[in-house]
Amino acid sequence: MTRCAVYGTGSWGTAFAMVLADAGCEVTLWARRPDLVEAINTTHTNPDYLPGVDLPKSVTATTDPAEAAEGAEFAVLTVPSQTLRGNLARWAPLFDTGTVLVSLMKGVELGTAKRMSEVVAEVAEVPESRVAVLTGPNLAREIAARQPAAAVVACTDAGVAERLQAACHTPYFRPYTNTDVVGCELGGAVKNVIALAVGIADGMKLGDNAKASLLTRGLAETTRLGLAMGADAHTFAGLAGMGDLVATCSSPLSRNNTFGRNLGRGMTLEETVAATRQTAEGVKSCESVLDLARRHGVDMPITETVVEIVHDGKPPLVALKDLMGRSAKPERH
Predict the structure, then answer these.
(1) What is the pLDDT of residue 246?
(2) Which helix (H) or strand (E) holds 313?
(3) Residue 102 belongs to what H/E stretch?
(4) How many CB atoms lie within 10 A of CB 59?
(5) Who's near 311: CB < 8 A, 6+ residues apart?
(6) pLDDT band at residue 252 under the 50/70/90 scheme
(7) Measured in whole angstroms, how far is the alpha carbon of residue 132 from the centre of its chain?
(8) Which of 43, 74, 253, 319 is deepest in the core (most CB within 10 A)?
(9) Residue where a domain stops, chosen among 149, 179, 209
(10) Which of 55-69, 72-86, 134-148, 269-283 has the lowest mean pLDDT?
């Protein structure tokens, strides 16, 4: 039986632990809080993040990161992206030399503008062939209900990707493999920013034309950045690009979309943060995505507009006027 460790007991980490267990793996969840560990081990539920969802008996929990790491073939990292560096510095010495580190995080690090796989490789001091990414249209609550979903498992080593694919393939969860780690990660990170924009438009009651335009032009921004960074253009037409973008921009289960809707309705940033229970990655990552774009000389006007609204306090109506007033260009500019 394949041993897996999952670091983080939020809704997605818990749901993916369930997927791994349903695929035949033995899974240990790491959590900070003893009360949550006790609840998972005694009731086989996560009452805080996935109430009412029964977890397989092969999922257990611990507060000891070393216990979780022991014998793990895959160590799945599913903490907020901006906390990864500090957490992984403590966990990295615990992993076996052959453990594959799997990122479920969809963000870009503030300050360094590094993708999550880059942070993992740097902090854990492992080659990129030992770092994998899982991404795609994966809303945690739907997967926890075992509704059909597909995903992408990306690693520069195709053999490692195939091993992880086998470890999480179930009748309801269908993973595909890809070696374009850059493209897969950018698709996951930038879609959170575009989902904020679409949510803001929804909150402003701008209509479906506006939302479809933001989604489509948002994908164009993502693709431009990806190509400048050496990604494969086809990745953005797949599950890690268009698939994830559609799910996150259209679903009421999306944290980033919900966060944007609240801003569009007139709530302040502080009020919206207070009303948001779990991390909306795009709120911080929009700044690091824009930083990444500027480093590569890529124009990303929707991303820039989101930063202006979220972090600079620009009123959404003013931001909309400025965005719509940009000079006309060919669609494939």
Answers:
(1) 96
(2) none
(3) strand 100-103
(4) 23
(5) 269, 286, 287
(6) confident
(7) 13
(8) 74
(9) 179
(10) 269-283
Evaluate whether residue 12 is within a structural domain.
yes
Domain limit, last residue, from 151, 179, 207 = 179
Beta bridge partner(s), residue 26 = 3
Contact (CB, 8 A) for 221 and 300 = yes
Is the separation of the CB atoms in 124 and 98 below 8 Å?
no
Q: pLDDT of 166-207, one tens digit each?
A: 999 999 999 999 999 999 999 999 999 999 999 999 999 999
CATH number at 223 reads 1.10.1040.10
Contacts for 101 with CB less than 8 Å, ≥ 6 apart: 75, 77, 95, 120, 124, 126, 130, 131, 132
Domain that holds residue 281: 182-324
Q: Are residues 148 and 63 in the same domain?
A: yes
Q: How many CB atoms lie within 10 A of CB 3?
A: 20
Average pLDDT over residues 228-242: 97
Which residues are known catalytic residues?
Answer: 191
Residue 173's pLDDT is 98
Domain count of the chain? 2
pLDDT digits over 12-49, tens only? 999 999 999 999 999 999 999 999 999 999 999 999 99
Residue 94: per-residue pLDDT: 97
Tokens matching residue 54 = 């029964």
Given 3-state DSSP classes, what are the helix, strand and coil percentages for the chain, each rounded to the nearest 5? 55, 15, 35
What single-letter DSSP state applies at residue 144?
H
As given in the structure block, the two tokens for residue 207 are 């209509």
The answer as to whether 97 is a domain residue is yes
Whether pLDDT at 276 is above 80: no
* Tokens found for residue 70: 């022991």
CA–CA dist 213, 215 (Å, integer): 5
Q: How many percent of the chain have pLDDT more than 70? A: 100
Assess whether 83 and 225 both reside in one domain: no
For 63, phi then psi, to 5°, come to: -95, -5
Those residues with Cβ within 8 angstroms of residue 35's Cβ, 6 or more apart along the chain or in another chain: none
